[in-house]
Specification:
This protein is an alpha/beta fold. It contains ten helices and 20 strands. The longest helix is centred in the middle third of the chain and has 14 residues, at about 150-160. Bound molecules: zinc ion.
């Protein structure tokens, strides 16, 4: 089957590769319609690895996908040929201890699309467990369906934050995950979300949404911005969504006494933080690794019109132009948020 293959670091090819096409028991065969390009896809392309995950053999990229059911394996109920769906890319071992705790996203045995050695879904057909496949409501497009995966990370962050109605939050980083975390926080009850970045273009995109207060870090420090917006009290919640080591400096000084810091971005190495500043506020610290039990909630919000992710899709490419799409994503244009590839119409 034809697929976008990362041959090795820095080398992409649209070519034939052997992939499973027959659904086994509990699985669906899905014709892929739309796939979003993720920062992790770009990272594997540019660097050939993320932490301990190393691209040692050719790997199909892509994990943010929506499509149509075209085959149904034995024992599957609730799906019919022609159903429009999106898919959760991580498949845990459902008998594992982590899965039994409901924390299947941190099951050490989880197999995740386009994470070596597991192939991704930039290809016309995939097979996937029905248990991790979700119906798209009629008013949710394939493009929006392919946005559910990155949005689910923001949703997981909002859920971990345990937002109280009327909270003020701050998000560090206005990349796709930062903006989607801010949108999840607003739909979870935050009255205002301060979103900070060094990119004027990214902040302009974030600022289009009601409730988001953009902060340009080239003009004002985060501490100053938070003091100004909260009368010196501090925000109830901070979401760190940049993963940049500098963002952690003074992070606990941003929250009010008893506030919460939610760590979403993955820094490249160890970062120093002031434990004394955390203790002085009795800070609560939460961490987010992907998501669990979130896709259906994300779809419910999108379908209800509470969250509009469409403005974040800043470019759409044909499957045949996949390599060009990756070149553009790798260029990291400041006014790009999410690029998508239409695998089939
Ligand atoms: Zn992603």
């Amino acid at each position: 089957m034809r697929a976008l293959v990362l041959e090795r670091q820095g080398e992409l090819a649209l070519r034939d590769i052997d992939l499973p096409t027959e659904p086994r028991a509990g699985e669906l065969k899905i014709a892929i319609r739309t796939v979003g390009i993720c920062g992790s896809d770009i990272h594997y392309y540019k660097h050939g690895r993320i932490g301990a995950y190393v691209v040692a053999a050719p790997m199909v990229l892509g994990h943010e996908a929506a499509g149509v059911v075209v085959g149904i394996g034995a024992g599957v109920s609730g799906f019919a040929i022609g159903d429009r769906v999106c898919m959760e890319p991580g498949i845990p071992d459902l008998t594992s201890r982590a899965a039994k705790l409901g924390r299947y996203n941190v099951d050490p045995a989880v197999r995740f699309w386009a994470t070596p050695p597991v192939h991704g879904v930039l290809t016309p057909y995939v097979v996937h467990p029905a248990a991790f496949t979700y119906h798209l409501p009629d008013n949710v497009s394939f493009a929006e369906g392919a946005m559910v995966e990155p949005f689910a990370i923001g949703m997981q962050a909002a859920a971990r934050a345990a937002i109280a109605p009327g909270d003020t939050a701050a998000v560090l980083g206005a990349g796709p995950i930062g903006i989607m975390t801010a949108l999840a926080a607003l739909s979870g009850g935050c009255a205002r979300v301060i979103v900070a970045d060094f990119s004027k273009e990214k902040l302009a995109i974030a600022a289009r949404y009601d409730g988001i207060v953009p902060v340009d870090l080239r003009q004002v420090s985060m501490g100053e911005a938070v003091r100004r917006e909260t009368g010196g009290w501090g925000v109830d919640l901070v979401f760190e969504a940049s993963g940049h080591p500098d963002a952690f400096k003074g992070i606990f000084e941003l929250i009010r006494p008893g506030g919460t810091v939610v760590l979403v971005g993955l820094p490249p190495g160890e970062v120093p933080v002031s434990i004394a500043a955390a203790i002085a506020r009795e800070a609560r610290i939460e961490t987010v690794f992907r998501y669990a039990n979130i896709f259906d909630r994300a779809l419910a919000l999108i379908s209800a019109g509470k969250v509009d992710l469409k403005p974040l899709i800043t470019g759409t490419f044909d499957f045949e132009d996949s390599v060009a799409a990756f070149e553009r994503a790798a260029a990291g244009r400041p006014d790009d948020v999410k690029l998508q590839i239409t695998v089939s119409d």
